[in-house]
Amino acid sequence: MKCIIIEDQLPAQRILKKYIEDLGTLELVGTFTDAIEAIVLLKSTTIAIIFLDIHLPKISGIDFLKTLSNPPQIILTTAFPDYALESYEFDVVDYLLKPFSFQRFVKAISKVDTKKDTLVISDQKNESEELQDIYIKVGFDHVRIVLEEIIYIVSDSDYTEIHINSKKLLSSETLRHWEEFLPSSKFMRVHKSYIINTSRIERVSGNQIYLSHQKVIPLGRAYKDNFVKNIL
Q1: Which CATH class is domain 2-120?
Q2: pLDDT tens by residue, 137-166
Q3: d(Cα 95, Cα 98) in Å, to the nearest integer?
Q4: Contact assessment for residue 18 and residue 63, using Cβ atoms and an 8 Å cutoff
């Protein structure tokens, strides 16, 4: 994901640059000492994340946010906690209070909605193309998964389990995220806790869906009408 830093203090800039480099999953494409300088880049380049200081010359970070009609995802960085409540009115991802640790930085990044950046990229593709594979964040790694290999996804407390043939991966994303992100032509939510790959259905018996690898998934009452209409 492409990101920029808008920060007028050089020590804070250096810390953010180091954290971004250490994380390894972000591409820093610009560093600015005031928000006005960043506007030209924002008009010409798709940016996923802005690390934005609140106290800036010329225009404050909050006032800058007010000028953006369709802003990237924002992570605010500041030494002043007073603006935390106001900042969340702008749907910011997180509010980092200086000085912050690398662990706190990673936690903020984990809240970023990677789907938004993916959607921007997919808009540049031919409309007839359909998502074939995805990268799932597992710990600090991103693991490639071919969508056809997914059998089902199940909610497990704060995580989701993605079952791929004989193995499973844990994701921090919610079941709602996968329901919205995965192509509806291939995946369907059939229960409050399950999403299935419809191409893996072997048979349906009453309220039981039998998938490949001898997995049986319950068909929830609230999802039955949609399942019957679109599958049966």
Answers
A1: alpha beta
A2: 776 677 888 888 999 999 877 788 999 987
A3: 10
A4: no
